[in-house]
Amino acid sequence: MLPALPDGDEREPESSEEGGGAGEERRPERHGCTYHGLYGYRRSAQQGAAAGDGGAGGAVAHTPSAEDFSLSLLDTNLPAEAETELRSFIAKRLTKGALFEGMGNVASVGLSIPEGKVGCYYCRFQQESLLEMESDISAPEYVVCFLGGSEKGLELFRLELDKYIQNLKINLDLEQKNLEACVSPYLRSWFEDAICPIQRVVQLFQDKLASLLHAALSYTPVEVKNADERTEKDISRFLAAASLQGLVQEGTMTSLCIAMTEEQHKSMVIDCSGPQPQLHNAGSNRFCEDWMQAFVNGAEGGNPFLFRQILENFKLKAIQDINNLKRFIRQAEMNHYALFKCYLFLKNCGSGDILLKIVKVEHAEMPEARNVVTVLEEFMRETPVA
């Protein structure tokens, strides 16, 4: 299977938030340099009152104009001309009412930089500690922008960037005296900290990545030893990104986590004391081995957006296999030939060990389906998956 790749975006900024179709042909992108911008956002007293009157209805009724707010530059690494263009882009979004507090957006914007058009993640937020203050004075608001790669590339990391902003809201003091010492380094590190962890894990584990993919899919507990803080966080983020959390029923994942935790001697241990991580109690299967090869092949280009796209395709294929197996099981409740089809599917899909555990948890309260799963377990024990 050849994974789809994110490409550079060709649309104009005004229409770029719509998102491309899933079937578009994609080419590898080069992310080039990365940039950031932080602005203070101040609404006029009149706009603040209009937004506050009548709850949500008042906010909807009033669309801000350029005179209703001001943007003041606090920090950036963009050239002056490009920063002015970015500020104009953000002002247009604010005028359209397209920036909601705490909700990140991704678009494509053309700036006077060598890369020309780049992806832009932007988010309006208030500092968390100031939100709790009892005062008639509204808490200061900010708009942060991260620029690099393409719109489609950054879209893959929207959740990671939202979390990055959440950390900025909670932990960093945005007072001017701390801007240069704390905030600026944090903003400059956005690409390394939010985008590159998956790439670093792929480069670190190489052909051992299959065991990490297997642990993520099966929710096997993982213990990391002798790793520095960044490596430990990278591994944790990779496992979270590779898991099916949010893609299958929450109760299924909870039950699967409990089942895997209760199995003795099943925790995978990653020892990072040497130049290459050593794995103990590691599992794998043909499905994960095949996808590991896709990651290793992509490592030559060093593109973090490519790795994330491969990871998304990996999860999509796993979900498709789960749904196919569940369909076969429903058929097998009344048809012995369908039971044989279930068995053949489990043997040939490459991930029968994991799929069987997932559907067993999902069908625990369904007697007929549970009986089918029990028979399949017996078949698989007699003829292990290749």
Automatic annotation (TrEMBL):
Residues 7-17 have a biased composition (Acidic residues). It holds the Pfam family Njmu-R1. One of its GO terms (cellular component) is trans-Golgi network. Residues 1-30 are annotated as: Disordered. It comes from Catharus ustulatus (Russet-backed thrush). The lineage of its organism: Eukaryota, Metazoa, Chordata, Craniata, Vertebrata. This is Chromosome 17 open reading frame 75. GO terms for biological process: vesicle tethering to Golgi.
